[in-house]
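FORM 7B: Structural annotation worksheet

SECTION A. Query
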Amino acid sequence: MSITAVPFELTGADARPIRGDAFVNSEATASVVLCHGLKGFARGGFFPFLTRRLNDAGFTVVTFDFSGSGVGDDRENFTDLEAFAADTFTNQLHDVDVVWREGQRRGWLSQPTGLFGFSRGGGIAILHAAANPRVRALVTWSAISSVNRWSAEVRQAWRARGYGEVENTRTKQVMRVSTAILDDIEQNAEGGLDILGAANRITVPWLIVHGTADETVPVHEGRQLHTASGDRAELALVERGTHTFNSAHGVVDPPPELAAATDRTIRFFQSNLEA
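SECTION B. Predicted structure
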């Protein structure tokens, strides 16, 4: 078995670049596409660890930075803060579609393919899987169940100021978020961005993984997704698991919670992505 890393750059939403890597397993009979969350990126957090584990388990893996991730061409630092500020859920859905089509064109996704999403990327993965019949299996970790994350008071203050702010806990950067995402939510939350509605339309095998100690996306959102699926999805709760399953950026030796989530995910994809 050999793994070949193939970097790529595509044109995403608002003509901003989508940068990514396809880790092509020479013996793979299935593929997985990974979607990161807010303030995340393909080479950050637990994603490199998860990518390696999936490769070792026999999968080709496609990872990428959303065009509005804010991560620059070094693939590590948040230097494109204008892109981060302008990002929306609809833009991310566009980016996933671009990556998927390119993966098919280049043969990375010519075999049964699964989709993985973390946190906000989990919500995006649910919305995409509900619309893309080529997704054969879905796994979400710490996924959001709604795009509307802010109270009316917060949204009002956000609009009055012209922007909101979020802190990147790793870099300590305070990054602005424009009102474009509020417009996107208000126009589409009950239509194309209805995550619970999309969850009800998922017919492929779906594993919902959520930590019971998630401090960012409460575990009840994982339960909401499970209920919305009509209990068709599998719900795997990780005891004492935080939002990132007790892991930090650059993890090599996984804590028990991350190991449990990863092992369950690999077994799930192996069982449900048979050629």
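SECTION C. Observations
The domain at 3-147+196-272 is CATH 3.40.50.1820 (Rossmann fold). Residues 199 and 229 are 5 Å apart (CA to CA).

SECTION D. Sign-off
Analyst initials: ____
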